[in-house]
Amino acid sequence: REVATEKGLIVVKRVEEEVSYATVLFAHGGLEAGEQLKELPRAGFETEVKGRGMLTGTWLDERPVSLAVRQIVARGFQAFRPYLALDLPLHLFDDAWGVPATVCLGAEYGFGLGRLRIAPFAELGLTLDLRLEEDEVPEFMLFGGAAGVQASWLLTRSFRLTAEAGAAGWRNNARPYLNSFGMFAGAGIVVKY
How much is the pTM? Predict the structure, then answer.
């Protein structure tokens, strides 16, 4: 029986006939030429679960807070990566007849420095009041977006911790008291698969 020890993690950037080029994300000890490598099969997606809160700007004298799940397309993308996010804006539950949910389409452009990854991002979204009764149509609540920067730290080959900050604006022309503009901060965890 053969026992292998994980010594590090690299990302192969370019493959040629005789040689491949890679970036070392982390290594225990040092990596040497000729080291045995093992490919980690991945589906090419990353899922982030995070919380985000407004630091400035208020919504009815409250600080808006949301919980989100973000699905990032990683296969075939290195620096630029598109994503789709589903947010639950907790501060809107009192004004919704059903479940308020925000769907965002966005992109990030990340670059790594070993285990650290910095990724500026921008997203546009639409918040709907999803009615739970039969034959009810979702009601438009808000539209807007966010832009910021996320820093993440690779814990293991499959998990990253994230922290983000930026500016966001959400608007409702019919009910301006729902509007929310300001700076935000958030944190989460990413699972790579």
Answer: 0.84
The whole-angstrom separation of Cα 172 and Cα 120 is: 26
DSSP states of 130-170 as a string?
E--STTPPPEEEEEEEEEEEEEEEE-SSSEEEEEEEEEEEE
What CA–CA distance (Å, rounded) separates 133 from 83?
Answer: 30
50/52 Cα distance (integer angstroms): 7
* Residue tagged 């807007």 (tokens): 144
Q: Counting Cβ atoms within 10 Å, is residue 72 exposed (0-12), middle (13-18) or buried (19+)?
A: buried
**Collapsing DSSP states into helix, strand and coil, what is residue 92?**
helix
Q: How far apart are CA 65 and CA 154, in angstroms?
A: 26
What mean pLDDT, rounded, does the chain reach? Answer: 87
Q: In which region does residue 173 sit, left (phi positive, over 0), alpha (psi from -120 to 50) or beta (all else)?
A: alpha
pLDDT per residue as tens digits for the range 66-97: 999 999 998 767 789 999 999 999 988 887 88
Place of tokens 């503009």: 181
> ∠16-19-21 over CA atoms, to 5°?
85
Residue 100 DSSP SS3: strand
**Cα–Cα distances in angstroms (integers) from residue 49 to residues 46, 69, 85, 124, 188, in the given order:** 10, 5, 10, 18, 5
